[in-house]
Amino acid sequence: MRISIFIIFICFFFNLSHSQISLRGFVKDTSEVPLSFATIQLIDSVGTKIYAFTTTKSDGSYDIELKTKGRYRIKASYLGYEAQTKKIVVDKDINSIDFVLQPQADELKEVVIKYDPKVATVKKDTIIYNLKKLTNGQENNLKEVLEKLPGIDINDQGKVTAFGKKVGKLLIDGEDVFKEQHQFATENITADMIAGVTFFQKYKGFANIDGFDNDQTTAVNISIKDKFKQRITGNIEVKGGMLNKYLLHTNLFRLGKRLKVTLLGDINNIGKESISFNDYINLNTTVKSTDFGNSTYYDDNDIPTFLSSTRDVANREIGFGALNFVYSPKENLKISGYSIFNTTSQSQFFLNRRRFFETLPDQRESKNIFGDFIFNTTQIKTAYKAGKSTFIQYTITNNPETDEEQFDLANDFNNDINIFNQRIKNVNKNIGQEVKITTKISNSSLLEFSGYSQYKESNNSTNIEGNNTFLGFATFDDLFNIDQENSFVNRTYGYNLINKNKSKVGTYNLVNGFIHRNQDFNSRLIGIPEEPTNNLSLGFTDAYIGGKYISKNFGVFSYQLGLEYHYFFYDLNKTETNNRFSFFPSMGINFRFRNNLLFSLNYSYQNEYPSLTTQISNDLVFNYLSKQIGGLVDFNEILPTQRIGSTVSWTDFKKGDNILFTLQYTDKSKSLTQNVNYRSDNFTENEYRFTDTNSNLFATLSFDKNFSKSKLKFSSVTLSIINEMGSFINEEENISDSFLVEQNFKVSSNFKKSINFKTGVNFTYLKVNNSFNDIEFTSSSIDPFVGIRASLLDKKMSFNLDFISKNLKAGDVTRSFFILNPSIKYAKPKSHWEFSLTGNNILNLESPEIVDNVNNNVFFEERISRSLEGYLILGANYKF
Amino acid sequence: MKKNILILFLFITSSMISQELSIVYEEKINNPNQSFTDDWYLDYDSGKSLYYPKDEIKDYEEPQTIEVEGEKYNITAKIFRNFDIVYFNQIDDIQISQLHASGEDYVVSEELKRYSWEILDQAKKIDSYNCRLATRIDEYGYEVKAWYTEDIPLSTGPAGYHGLPGLILELEYGFKHVTVKTISFEAKSKIVKPNKGTKMTREEYNALRGILMPKNSSETTVEQEGNTTITTTVIHEVKTTSAPKKKN
């Protein structure tokens, strides 16, 4: 809606004698001096409509022609004088109004115009961030830049998110160089390399076929400044300091037009990790790039301890190298890949107090663990576009891995002290390949074929030595020594075919495919009479057909509906064959208001089957305290999962304010659990069972509020998890309820100059209750923090100080300590050198102790462990 | 101080009160191929104004590679910076434009152009000035967007645009985006008529330059003369090339 009026520039030279109604007069100042080129406007009573306007002649006279008589306002203005508005009634053909204007008291001076631009420009499905407005020049790397952009964030796993969801692609100058390893980019691309950041709601990738959105996803593109392109650029950093701490880090980038290569290398003993738990899972699970139906299958994946242990590591040495590349020799050919190599050596120390039952005395344990892990993952992907309608891609992956852990253990139960030595070694192989072909059948129909095969092999050996019997084993000749050898081989192959069809009412996808798995599990326990073995095999096929409908947008609303029919058949140990079928429905609705308010709701249902190892008939040793025994679990049992999730997000692109709410509820009406039998000679025997209690509610609420005048930002993140899980203890059902709340408040400043600060508090509260023994445990932590960041000497020198007060409480045990992280960095002017002094947790150069509460459904464990020791290191960084 | 008062007294007694202004604008031109940023002055004094570049704008040469039907050519493109220096005189109803086009200067003297504007209800603040949006469609079919402020009640503006009940602070026109940088309420220099170049009428100039411009402002024509390809791109800035060499 717009009030629009045509106004004509009526010049005073016009002869207006033909006009019927005219308005005339003079504009003079208080000294009777005529004011020439004064502006005269005829406006409506509110002042929004302009009917006519003119300027006065040299003698200060004006003449305005009017079409209709009536009530108006007439305004005269002149630079340096107070404007004057008069209410008039035009009732004659010739009307006379004169003005006498008062000079303004203030003298007019020169004005430098300051613009207050938006923090981001929204164009259709693209948001272009205004980095000048959003950053202050004190940012070190891409991560610190992205965290200042409204709607964009880095999640706990180091992935870049936009409006609460992980972005589909993180692009460097339009290329997906780092694939899923966002943190390689966010940690290592320096802030001064960044020319701009753009978010695409609908980014069309290389595999996209015109007219179809088959490779359409969300993306964040980082454009690199020209001076960092077409040549090798990067840095080499050497740091060393007290207590023999060192760090050697290098980033090398060559971001050309056709070839983009990055090489990251890191050797340190300060515990700085380059790969996260989730990266490992993503890199090591499967080669297949599309979801094959909705079915998921229980895979026994052992996660190396170095990834699952984060804060309870006393010290850690890391060697890391990553090569990422994208090469586009032709417009229709793209070869990309990565190879990541990681070695970790670490030691851990624990003092545990375990409580099984109120009636039993506590078990005390001291545990020293020394671990060595070697992990490599390599992927090469070749993508080719044959004409405009066909896309072909071949991917091959190889992930070898070895991890070895040595445990020194002492166990005190009822003043009976025993000593154990435990060694566990895993050697894993994982090789996969995938072919993907996408072809356009017609202007409204697209066919996507994907075929893959994967070979996984895992060999595990466990050796336990003690000074007494353990796990109830009668060992040969009282040597108290056992060896266990396990091997698990998993061969998988399958195909998936999707036919995407566009119509006026939306898109409907037809899908069919199958996955076949061949698994062999063998175990042998040496050192005890009869040497119990397990020899299991499984052939499992899931064949499916289904469809999904994605509606067009009805104004702000769209929805999708899906249904898949799955037919399963399997052959267990070549003796037991069976088949059955299931329907997997899914649905979702989306609302999108004015680009900045989004609401979505999703529901899905799917099945899992028990894993092969549930079918063991003989003992399988976990550790010196527990073993798995043959269970009562029927393989033919379907384990259903229902998920419902919702997201609401709102962003104000002008101010940068943002609210995000997510809710995810998962319910498993039947799922795998354990029955734990506590044996009187101080060990547990686990048996697989089913439980009908397994639900999880996960909610997050975060918001950012910017006070643009004071350049302050307030942010709050609330996370809450409510979990209910059933298990059995000595055949009796136990329901374990847990409730976790995490709350972070932060106020931070974003001044362009001088000093910036952040302050806030992180709060965690965990409450666990077991129905079996009615024990309730709580643990909490309150960690207030203050951080100061300053830049001096024209940003040549920067100073950083973080102070955190850690206050941990688990049951009755409390630990409090302070963390002080000071750092100072100096960039030598007109040189490539940067020097730094970095301190991390300098008040605790010896490993500080932390406390945790662990509930494993059967016992509570109060755990005191050592966390990484602090360091103070001096460094030199050469940038080129 | 006494001197100032005396001068002020002299002004009043000679019954001359003037409105003076000197403004610095930034002109950004973002062609698909090139972009330029220049500072321009707008000097205004009692009905007369002159819009001219702060620093001399020069034509220049640039090596380029162009692709025509799959074949690549190395050429030296002569980049002609086309611009207009505009003088308004509201007293004598005269507009004098010194037009720089394809390396030549022309002077066109004509009656003050009378623009009809559509004033919309969109408003924004530029610094502390309340601005309103006015638009018009020019004779070539382009939309001109002007943000003007009544807080400075002078009917003038940059890039040859005027005719609103206030000073134009921001202007968007084709690939051109003009924004105000500083406003100073006193004349910086005397306003003189531009006079460099061949004098002609607007009609003669249009005929010479082959205007009217096409509505789609960027057009590339490729002519083949023997082994020589002549590529001419007409954008807001005019670029012509001569005798390109074929790339082997």
Question: Could you describe the 3D structure shown?
Answer:
The complex is a heterodimer of chains A (880) and B (248). With 880 residues, chain A is mainly beta. Chain A is built from five helices and 51 strands. In chain A, the strands form five sheets. Chain A has a 33-stranded mixed sheet that branches. A five-stranded mixed sheet of chain A has the order 11-12-17-18-16, with no helix packed on it. Chain A is globular. Chain B has a twelve-stranded mixed sheet, with helices on one face. In chain B, strands 4, 5, 15, 16, 17 and 18 form a six-stranded antiparallel sheet that branches. Chains A and B meet through strand 1, strand 4 and strand 10 of A and strand 9 and strand 13 of B.
Helix-strand makeup class of chain A: mainly beta
Query: How much is the radius of gyration of chain B in Å?
Result: 21 Å
As residue ranges, the low-confidence spans of chain B are: 5-15, 212-248
Strand content of chain A: over 45%
Tell me, briefly, the overall form of chain B: globular
Average of per-residue pLDDT values of chain B: 75
